[in-house]
Design a protein that fits this description.
Length: about 375
């Protein structure tokens, strides 16, 4: 894994493009295959001259790039759809002066910069203020645009790659890393991702962005300096491959949470583990406050069931709490866990289940 990536989390850009000719559109998770190609088209390992198929092969890696830039799963899907539509429309003018991949990244960068123009940065609850005691009022929910959003691994992690590349792919979509990126100006953010995550040479980034190598290197240095001051405390361990210790830790967590055994649950948490609940800004940190919350405002979660999934390169669970009115269990939160060593360093409970569960392929109810 890149030492720079882990060490500072930290980069710049610009360029016009002949395909950059339309205003961004809203597509929401629709794929190119739904618009113009056979879903049974060849995979990325297949050589093909069909332009629509060639473009579709880059969807996953472009989604990962756009997600790192934007911090939103749905906006990333929109950005990639717009990128592929622009590229398809301009494909006849693509003369092969650069690689198709570089051309697509150039279009995607312009789309993301357009989408980022003048808007508030997304964040985690821990970025918005200090931890609160469990006795604090929950407060009003913040708008969707305020939050770093979760994304399924299947949308951004390659199915097969070198283990070192997979580790970087997972580490670079972690919630903490994506949140740290949002502290960079958009152009520096793009430079950092292209250089540190995708490992492009400075010359390649300069050509892609229509700028100089000196400008790219300067932007990278500024980005590294900014992120070095914001390095996340208690950096979590990569989630894959799962080893026996992690498997045992997760099994104990599921058992403790489903039994609602507070002693067992807190024994699995670091002393300073974070416990946050977007879209609410309130977050907890001490074991005492976690227990007080679970046995107070959160008592309705007693008797919950957990269904495993993967999000942001991390282990995650769909949480279903008992539904006395209708029977069975109703969707309550998407839990994304951060592991560090032999314990859990943070849990984010994303509460907008109607938004997140369909994206992760999770049902909204579990019948007993």
């Amino acid at each position: 894994m890149s030492k720079n990536l882990i060490g500072v989390l930290g980069i710049a850009l610009d360029a016009g493009d002949p395909a950059d000719v339309t205003e961004p559109r809203r597509y929401h998770v629709r794929r190119m295959s739904e618009l113009m190609i056979d879903p049974a088209a060849p995979t990325a390992t297949t050589t093909t001259t069909d332009p629509m198929t060639q473009l579709e092969e880059y969807r996953r890696e472009l989604t990962a790039y756009a997600y790192r830039m934007l911090g939103s799963a749905f906006e990333a899907e929109d950005a990639v759809q717009e990128t592929l539509v622009r590229a398809w429309r301009a494909f006849d003018s693509f003369e092969g002066r650069s690689a198709l991949r570089s051309w697509l990244y150039r279009i995607a960068t312009n789309v993301c910069l357009d989408m980022l123009g003048g808007r508030q940065r997304r964040a985690r609850a821990m970025d918005l203020g200090p931890a609160s005691p469990a006795s604090s009022a929950l407060g009003s929910p913040l708008p969707e645009a305020a939050w770093i959003e979760p994304i399924p691994d299947g949308r951004v992690i390659p199915e097969a790659a070198d283990p070192a590349d997979l580790a970087v792919a997972r580490e670079s979509v972690r919630l903490a890393f994506v949140a740290a990126l949002q502290h960079l100006p958009p152009r520096q953010r793009a430079v950092l991702i292209l250089r540190e995550v995708l490992r492009w040479r400075a010359e390649e980034v300069a050509e892609l962005l229509g700028t100089t190598v000196a400008s790219v290197n300067s932007a990278l240095q500024r980005a590294r300096a900014t992120l070095a001051t914001r390095k996340a405390e208690g950096t979590a361990d990569p989630a894959e491959p799962m080893n026996a210790e992690q498997q045992a830790l997760l099994a104990r967590y599921v058992d403790a949470f489903e039994r609602y055994d507070m002693d067992s649950l807190t024994s699995l948490l670091h002393e300073d583990a974070s416990w946050s609940m977007p879209p609410y800004a309130l977050w907890l940190q001490t074991h005492e406050d976690v227990v007080a919350w679970c046995l107070g405002p959160g008592i309705g979660c007693e008797g919950s069931k957990l269904v495993p999934t993967m999000a942001n390169g991390s282990f995650a669970f769909g949480q279903y709490k008992p539904d006395p009115e209708n029977g069975g269990h109703a969707a309550w939160s998407l839990q994304v866990l951060d592991l560090s060593g032999d314990r859990i360093s943070g849990i984010t409970f994303f509460l907008d289940t109607e938004r997140w569960f369909p994206l992760f392929g999770l049902p909204l109810r579990l019948d007993d």
